Amino acid sequence: MRVLIMAHDHLSPPGPIAERFAQRGFEIVEQVVVPPERFDQPNVSFDFPEPTDFDAIVPMGAPWGAWDDETIGNWLQPEIDWLQRADRAQVPVLGICFGGQLLARVHGGSVARAPRPEIGWSTIWTSQPDLVGPGPWFQFHYDRWVVPPAAVEIARNSLASQAFVLRRNLAVQFHPELTADGLLGWIDNNGRALIEADGQDPDVLHAHMVAEEGAASERAHRLVDAFLDQVARGALDGAPPRDQ
Question: Residue 123's domain spans which residues?
Fold first, then answer.
């Protein structure tokens, strides 16, 4: 079995998400859309692989907007088309933050700026805690999605929708993959200014991440398990198993 971790930049390692896929017997394949040298000019071209070469796909977060065709349109629209192909082929997709927002666009929803950013730890209201638990989950986003018409929203808070499921697609708005080292990478790459602009202390936020890291990794593992055991198998909608 193979899972494709589709990173959109070099600052978003998959952490405990990839770790749990590996523990479940998956070969981890990682690809990066925007290379480090093009981070400030991210409108690159990218050839997405054949989705059916993988047993699951995980589109990760990104510092750009899933609505921003002007800035990243050279690969944004092709990725949307690619995820549509994955859905038609019944390849399971777990979309994380930007990746979840992409799934909203793919399936007829939309993405736009939220009234304010959501940065730091938060609990969420979930109607299916066996699939997406209440957290706390780490958030770092400025945008929010409108849930696609055919999708089922399963988690939310007062600012934004937090998770939805549609066929073999699961979208989450938060960052289950994040570790203390990963957050430090964000802080050291313009994240400090963004966190301070939100009225928060980046060093305290990082210390909180260090303290919470073990429990957060366990929650991420449970999320992967639920995705594989419920969403990827089609157990939520009674769909037949995908041909391997």
Answer: 2-178+219-231
Measured distance CA(101)–CA(153) in Å, rounded: 13
Residues 208-229 have pLDDT tens digits of 999 999 999 999 999 999 999 9
- Tokens representing residue 67 in the block: 């609505």
Residue 199 located in a structural domain? no
Q: Of the listed 79, 97, 141, 206, which one is catalytic?
A: 97
Residue 64 lies in a domain: yes
Is 208 inside any structural domain?
no
Helix (H) or strand (E) holding 166: strand 161-166
Residue tagged active-site, from 175, 206, 213, 221? 175
Each residue of 80-134: pLDDT tens digit? Answer: 999 999 999 999 999 999 999 999 999 999 999 999 999 999 999 999 999 999 9
Q: How far is CA 226 from the centre of its chain?
A: 15
Q: Looking at the domain assignment, is residue 201 inside a domain?
A: no
Given 177, 206, 213, 221, the catalytic residue: 177
Contact of 149 with 104, CB cutoff 8 Å: no
Q: What angle do CA 156, 118, 161 make, to 5 degrees?
A: 20
Give yes or no: 177 in active site.
Answer: yes
Q: How many domains does the chain have?
A: 1
The verdict on whether 97 is a catalytic residue reads yes
**pLDDT top residue among 211 and 244:** 211
State the CATH number of the domain containing residue 118: 3.40.50.880
- Asked if 8 and 98 count as a contact pair (C-beta separation under 8 A), the reply is yes
10 is known as an active-site residue: no
